[in-house]
Amino acid sequence: MTWFDNSIMSRRAEAKGLVTETYSMTEADQGKYHYVYGPYASPVLTVDPGAQISVETHDAFEGKIKDETDLPSQVLNVPYLNPQNGPIFVNGAEKGDCLAVYIKEIRPRGPQPVGTTCLIPEFGGLVGTGDTALLNAPLPERVKKLHVDAVTGVKWNDKITIPYEPFIGTIGTSPEIEAISSLQPDYYGGNMDLPDVAPGAVIYLPVNAPGGLLYLGDCHAAQGDGELCGVAVEHPTVTTIQVDLIKGWNFKWARLENENVIMTIGSSRPMEDASRIAYRELVRWMAADYGFEELDAYMLLTQVGRVRLGNMVDPKYTLGASISKKFLA
Amino acid sequence: MTWFDNSIMSRRAEAKGLVTETYSMTEADQGKYHYVYGPYASPVLTVDPGAQISVETHDAFEGKIKDETDLPSQVLNVPYLNPQNGPIFVNGAEKGDCLAVYIKEIRPRGPQPVGTTCLIPEFGGLVGTGDTALLNAPLPERVKKLHVDAVTGVKWNDKITIPYEPFIGTIGTSPEIEAISSLQPDYYGGNMDLPDVAPGAVIYLPVNAPGGLLYLGDCHAAQGDGELCGVAVEHPTVTTIQVDLIKGWNFKWARLENENVIMTIGSSRPMEDASRIAYRELVRWMAADYGFEELDAYMLLTQVGRVRLGNMVDPKYTLGASISKKFLA
Amino acid sequence: MTWFDNSIMSRRAEAKGLVTETYSMTEADQGKYHYVYGPYASPVLTVDPGAQISVETHDAFEGKIKDETDLPSQVLNVPYLNPQNGPIFVNGAEKGDCLAVYIKEIRPRGPQPVGTTCLIPEFGGLVGTGDTALLNAPLPERVKKLHVDAVTGVKWNDKITIPYEPFIGTIGTSPEIEAISSLQPDYYGGNMDLPDVAPGAVIYLPVNAPGGLLYLGDCHAAQGDGELCGVAVEHPTVTTIQVDLIKGWNFKWARLENENVIMTIGSSRPMEDASRIAYRELVRWMAADYGFEELDAYMLLTQVGRVRLGNMVDPKYTLGASISKKFLA
Amino acid sequence: MTWFDNSIMSRRAEAKGLVTETYSMTEADQGKYHYVYGPYASPVLTVDPGAQISVETHDAFEGKIKDETDLPSQVLNVPYLNPQNGPIFVNGAEKGDCLAVYIKEIRPRGPQPVGTTCLIPEFGGLVGTGDTALLNAPLPERVKKLHVDAVTGVKWNDKITIPYEPFIGTIGTSPEIEAISSLQPDYYGGNMDLPDVAPGAVIYLPVNAPGGLLYLGDCHAAQGDGELCGVAVEHPTVTTIQVDLIKGWNFKWARLENENVIMTIGSSRPMEDASRIAYRELVRWMAADYGFEELDAYMLLTQVGRVRLGNMVDPKYTLGASISKKFLA
């Protein structure tokens, strides 16, 4: 028995965390990838709770950055960035429910060097951008192609190798009536770029549109806190998820659980608002489901809460706030 | 001859600022109002450059707040707020062009009291919100219905009457692939809540989708800088605009011109980013069209630039940066 | 009779807004200028309420930028910037009181070109700074010396002349135990760079240390909203103020009154916090002194409040929120 | 041999990381505690590089919150909060040098319950504050006194015990001419509330005033990321530090080293600026001392950088950015 057998997904979801059917979603199955999270696209797959799905994700550039001499500003075409698989329609999912997505495996796919990072003009955490709009000249563009191996890691240069610690950069459900760029994270998930959204974790996503309409893509082979220059080690993958449905678990912002913690995820600007969202959601979760009085939860998190900075580069910044399960017993 | 005869619209647009046809768009013509700015709705009207259109706008609550005993949290249904007329398809408009919209008149319509302001939980400039997420208890809800007269003004109470200074709170074009809540302002316009978008002004909107797809609504009878509690004097109107097309005038963020100034409009969070956007756009406009060297424009704006705070309550804050035309001669 | 005869200063201050004694404070009288607002410097002048004082202020660079070939980064010596006259000890002023300072006149002094603006590396509203810390290369340095005439204005170039609209960039009282850079604005005033602090206005400053300890300097011949590049038209002046004392008028943040408005001033980061401070103080002032119920003031300011952006470049940003006196009658 | 023998302090400081003399600084030795970081106080101790000092620190409330019925708003007296030991004058320290402070031990002192946390009106991460100035009613005040034991931990309630993981909440050097509240973190250290400033770490502080003038206090028995409600488990301690001097190591922002990482610390508002500062300093450090090309460091930190949120409640927010030493070899 593993922690997952006692997870919220296993205890509360329709299929009890069990696999009831399996699917694969190849590039060909997907056909056209999507660049917005919204209800206006037709589902490419319809599943029941309990479906396991292996998904061929593209990298964030849809493979257009092919070598180190490419200029991102020339080969990329805004807003057609961060291509997403999906949407996946989950039978029975209605507004006010929760999609539970157990992340089972992420494997690199395609010929080496399969990883890409780069500097893109007016994008990144230490440069002027479209919002932090400045007159300074942009940094030079630069592309770095990287050999990524699930066992030996990401080879940065002759001296430095980075462990392969893959996660899903962008995953979420559809808003009710909006269609929002897949570059943006928000209450429904989206481009959170949060390294905790990794194999072994369950992400809980609010359902706002019929079927939930799950999208995902943008897997990273490695990423530091904040995704500083805006581009992690982007790579195409086969990503395997298991999707389940928790009826009537109604909350606004995406949540996460793994063996050790429960986590709430906030995305906003300025960054302190993302942090406030995440921590307030965590206070409320502790009060609703773990028997805490709200102000006691607030004071306890002051002593034991943990914060993970996902991104400091996207249209909204993302932070996860968590508490160890050992304080929830 | 008025300033308008020498406006950018009159000089550069397809119909030269002349009215070539007139339309009215009643509530019945509109049918279903819209709550997102996007390309997924069918046009309700297709016009040529030079069209004058009288539009029956709803107030931001679609008339659902009927009297002072109503509770906003009960009668309103998120995200179905801030109903918009449109979209209006302008023949010939393509990505990279500019829609010029001359605002000719705004008149209140409907039975008195035609104006509404109110306090809505977790919304406003001096309260915790969904983003500035806090544990403090919300303020009480409160509704104030107001008699609005185009001549005598808005009667606040027995002692205070506010001048009728109407403007369009929400107006803009469609993003290319996104569909964004009409509560949000952004590069394409939207819910800017900027009092300069008033009769006598021309707003220049970037075209991102075929036909431009113009939306508008949310007219205010009066509003202070920042729209402090989040709800101006909202009222249904007949709003008359004249729409024209400037081919190849390609810029990212909405702009405005009136008799006295040219203005650029930025929307973002935190507020300083909105200001940076607006001022950088103004620097670039002065350099592109008025013969300034960029750094000289930057230094001159330091001495003569003006800033108008539109809203400090919406999903993005809006500021307009302007320079008097007397410095551009 | 002028508005001033009915000002708060005239009605409530110890000397009733009357001049009871006159002083001049020349460069020689001042001797060493100050670079912090704090209680650790000895007063250079001690006065009674009702004192009129003519002060020889330096420009923000203490005259070190002498011509257009100077490099600011070489001739300036951080933190010895923005030299201040004072402190002036006001007899009877104690913590919890208010200093009222009526600004009577500002005149340029010294040989032409008496005005200076410039671009300083990593300082300004549209560049990366020490706080918005980026990797972009800084803009080039640039100095512009300007002929400033109180009658004919500031000559920008052959085509552009800017009206002479002088104000005091930096004025305030001492904190109780802190000594804070004269580059920073805060609750006690300081480097607000707010154009409303001009001849004809009264600024009300909270007293936090015995005698109040008034400092001032950094007069600007002209400035746009936000002081965009960080350097207005800086110039040395003779500035005449009249100082009075309001016992027991206890508030935290600097306030202002002129013929038309009452204004509260907030300084913070991010900019929305400066706006929140200013507006909350205004709500409270209206409730305390003008008979408004607090939420009614909040809702009324939503319709008629005005915001002036002082600076968007200093260690804290400054905004003034005001309401026309016609709504206070 | 431990990692410390190969630390920057051991390699580069005057006393080579060796203890050359020992001192104790009791409450009686200290006499009056300080509430600002500045150059205007007389040193209470003058030492040579290599001094080991055992310091009796007060808790952040100077012991004034004695039991759970006390109201913080009544027993505390702003700005006399967060009392600091020091200043300690280090012989030979001049502007442009670095003080290295090795944190050797923190032990609770005084009678149980020795720990205090509480809710203070208008202070904390999930409430309106003096800067995020709102109209919502404050939360109720609440005090929690806690039994703190260095071995068994902090007893929260019958079910929850928190490990004793003490660190120094406030430590730093004096600014050159400013005297800044000990509640504020900044470039010189101060109230960073960063849990990494713990026994086993070396903090490197820039010297701005002669002798460096080291202050410290405000030790926490435990704290979560962000110090959410603003008050960690505050407790009086005996804290033992070893002070050394690195001549000519000139940088602006406080840095840290422990067995596993090097870390830079940024403090600012909004939070993204704190993060930018920390990461830019880390890029520059890697370029200056570890042989990285600057943009390569920027791209590498994108993949392996780590961020720790110190506080989200103080006048400036604090984040630490770090890189594992394994990537620096």
What is the gist of this entry?
Chain A has 329 residues and is mainly beta.
Give structural notes.
Four copies of one chain form a homotetramer. In chain A, helix 4 (271-289) packs across helix 5. In chain A, the strands form four sheets. A nine-stranded mixed beta sheet of chain A has the order 1-4-17-6-15-18-19-21-20. In chain A, strands 3-5-16-11-14-13 form a six-stranded mixed beta sheet, with no helix packed on it. Chain A has a single domain (3-248), classed as Acetamidase/Formamidase-like domains (Jelly Rolls), CATH 2.60.120. Chain A is globular. The first copy, chain A, has helices at residues 8-12, 27-30, 72-75, 271-289, 294-304, and strands at 21-25, 36-37, 45-47, 51-57, 85-90, 98-108, 115-119, 142-149, 153-155, 161-162, 167-172, 180-181, 185-186, 189-190, 202-206, 214-220, 237-246, 255-257, 261-268, 306-311, 317-324. Helix content of chain A is 13%, strand content 34%. Chain A is mainly beta. Chain A has five helices and 21 strands. At the A-D interface, helix 4, helix 5, strand 20 and strand 21 of A face helix 4, helix 5, strand 20 and strand 21 of D.
